[in-house]
Amino acid sequence: MDVTPELVEHIVDLSRLELGPEEVRGIAAELERVLGYMDVLNRLDTEGVEPMSHVFPVKNVLREDVVVPFPFQDWVGLLAGAPETDGETFLAPKTVE
Amino acid sequence: MEWTELTALELGAAIKKGELSVREAVQGALDRIAARNSAMNAFVTVTSERALERAEQLQAGVKDADSPLYGVPMAVKDNICTRGVPTTCASKILDGFVPPYSACVVDKLASAGAVCLGKLNMDEFAMGSTSETSFYGPVKNPWDLTRAPGGSSGGAAAAVAAGLGWYAIGSDTGGSVRQPAAHCGVTGLKPTYGVVSRYGLIAYASSLDQIGPLCRDAADCAAVLDVIRGKDPRDGTSLDGQYGNLISGLTGDVRGLNIGLPVDCYGDGLNGEVKAAVLAVADALKSRGAEVVEVSFPVMEYVVPTYYIIAAAEASSNLARFDGVKYGWRAQEYEGLRDLYCKTRTQGFGPEVKRRILLGTFVLSSGYYDAYYRKALQVKAVIKEAFDKAFQWCDLLLTPVAPTTAPRLGESLSDPLQMYLGDVYTVSANLAGLPGLSMPCGFDSKGLPIGAQLIGPHFGEGQLLNAAHVFQMDTDWHKRVPKGGGPA
To answer: How far apart are CA B237 and CA B201, in angstroms?
Structure first.
């Protein structure tokens, strides 16, 4: 298929990435080549084949709905890995003014 | 022979008998790491002090230990969480991240008396087949330092091959345990999907990811899998393996075992030396009483595109969580939340990770979902069915692991599609959730190891390990030790 710079820019935006114009052209060419190769799948007739997301028939694995306490030191540890916190929560720029 | 050349089970037995202390084993490995790692770059983090402290704690329990791996030093791929020890996925975006919890496998191994030496280098987020996409620089193959060790568990394979630890824990989404094992001359096992809990494994493609051991031989793989397998309530896809103790299943008897040779795996694109060495495995097992039959596997041309569509789709979704808010690295300059996400991800991810996120976002996007993602899930069902048919004629399949031996550094990065095609023999086991084992079966004229792959039906680990064990009783390819990275 024809991969245009506009299509790549749309995908880049959905992915929350930024690419310069030259990178967009590079990715467009690469994507076109990779997708061209993937078109081989169209040689296989899959009419009526149920899409398989999981190889085992394991569905809706349920467990008792019980509260498991989260240890304080783990909570501190979780926050310690974040770029910015106020000691109690993660901090990020405001989304709505 | 040096202690570092023993298998994990042999070392465990020596520790149990008091022939050496846990501390001596740990110190031996640390000395080896100090001497050879700078040339190979197999480790991202070496936890010397922790390992020595742990050795002292474990020594007191040697007499009462019931695990055959008690006291044996090992290392863990850097996409598996280790409490208090940095876990980076070899990515800038997780640089400095220290998990507040350990993966299920790490806890299980600790309970069995493992000593962790550190964290192993890999392709960034396990995306790559050469271990060159790491933020911390490429891993070098100990058989030839100008070559790649394979990937993505390249640090794990290189470390075990060069004696920087007795075994390693890796992950395999499309061949990431088996292919580096082949390129470095060690034995690697990807278990049946679900047999090992993925709790604490940083996700790449959740429906394909599976944790597995890289070891000196099949018996060690059996011992490690005996420790790490089992259902875990924290991973809803985990299952209890439907088999007993794997070590005691190594009977050394393959009489009557039916080995299938999928003719479609031995055609164009396969290097002649690799082909000859892999077919010699069939002859060796035949001489032990196994039977060899040719089988059809007519879906080979579909496996790589199906794999890359599904893996990229899941990756684009899984990696959405790296946004510079909850963990890891954040861009220095940004304007507002959206810009924070974009700048952090753009500067934090490397080119191959971005490529796969973009491909995955594309195949899931409105207007293209049915043509690519849904189609791939349908073809996945067809591939699974092809395996089911093949296993009506045989107990396990014998194929190459990779079309060639280890490539030169840099050779694969210039052409991503070519690199993807190199995964042709390994990805199908992930798509169908089957166990696959990679073992050394010879060397090419350049002196590089060649790997053979055995694929079994679901929960067929016992048969795979026993067949590999029988092959290793009759050959010594797995005992060869590379000199790369050592003192000149």
So the answer is: 13
Residue identified by tokens 């946004």 is B323
The span from the first CA to the last CA of chain A, in angstroms, equals 42
Give catalytic residue positions of B.
77, 152, 176
d(CA B39, CA B33): 10
Mark A63-76 as b/e (b = at least 16 C-beta within 10 Å). eeeeeeeeeeeeee
Which of A51, A55, A76 is opposite residue B193, by nearest beta carbon? A55
State which residues of chain B have pLDDT below 70: 1, 485-488
Beta-carbon contacts of B195 under 8 Å, excluding residues fewer than 6 positions away, are B210, B225, B229, B230, B238, B239, B241, B435, B459, B461
d(CA A16, CA B302) in angstroms, rounded, equals 30
What strand order describes the sheet that includes B187-190?
B43-46, B115-120, B73-77, B167-172, B210-215, B187-190, B436-443, B449-455, B396-400, B258-262, B291-295
Of B334, B354, B365, the CB nearest to A14: B365
Q: How confident is the model over A59-80, as a mean pLDDT? A: 85
Contact B380 A52 (CB under 8 A): yes
* Predicted pLDDT of residue B116: 98
* A78 Cα to chain B: minimum distance (Å): 6
Please tell me the predicted confidence (pLDDT) of residue B488: 40
Nearest of B254, B49, B78, B246 to residue B152 by alpha carbon: B78
Contact B405, B141 (CB under 8 A): no
Q: How far is B282 from chain A (nearest CA, A)?
A: 29
Q: How many contacts (CB atoms, under 8 Å) link A and B? A: 149
**Cβ contact (<8 Å) for A82 and B416?**
no
Nearest to B265 by CA among B275, B273, B280, B255: B275
Residue A82, min C-alpha distance to chain B (Å): 4
- Identify the DSSP state of B479: G
Selected for mutation to probe chain A from B93, B234, B335, B358 (highest A CB count within 10 Å) is B358
pLDDT at res. B243: 84
Q: Among A12, A81, A82, select the one facing B358 at the smallest CB separation.
A: A12
C-alpha distances in Å from residue B54, one per residue of B60, B71, B75, B76, B105: 11, 9, 14, 16, 17
Q: Say if residue A15 is preceded by a cis peptide, omega within 30 of 0.
A: no
Q: Mark yes or no for CB contact B341/A78 under 8 Å.
A: no
Q: Rounded to whole angstroms, how far apart are CA atoms B151 and B133?
A: 10
Please name the member of B316, B330, B337 whose beta carbon is closest to the beta carbon of A15. Answer: B316
Confidence category of residue A69, pLDDT binned at 50, 70, 90: confident
CB contact under 8 A, B337 and A94: yes
User: CA of A67, closest CA in chain B: separation in Å?
Assistant: 14
**Are the CB atoms for B50 and B116 separated by under 8 Å?**
yes
**Structural contact between residues B158 and B139, judged by C-beta atoms closer than 8 angstroms:** yes
Residue A71: phi and psi, rounded to 5, are -60, 145
Query: Which tokens sit at B362?
Result: 């594309």
Cβ–Cβ below 8 Å for B194 and A41: no
Q: Are B457 and B391 in contact (CB under 8 A)?
A: yes
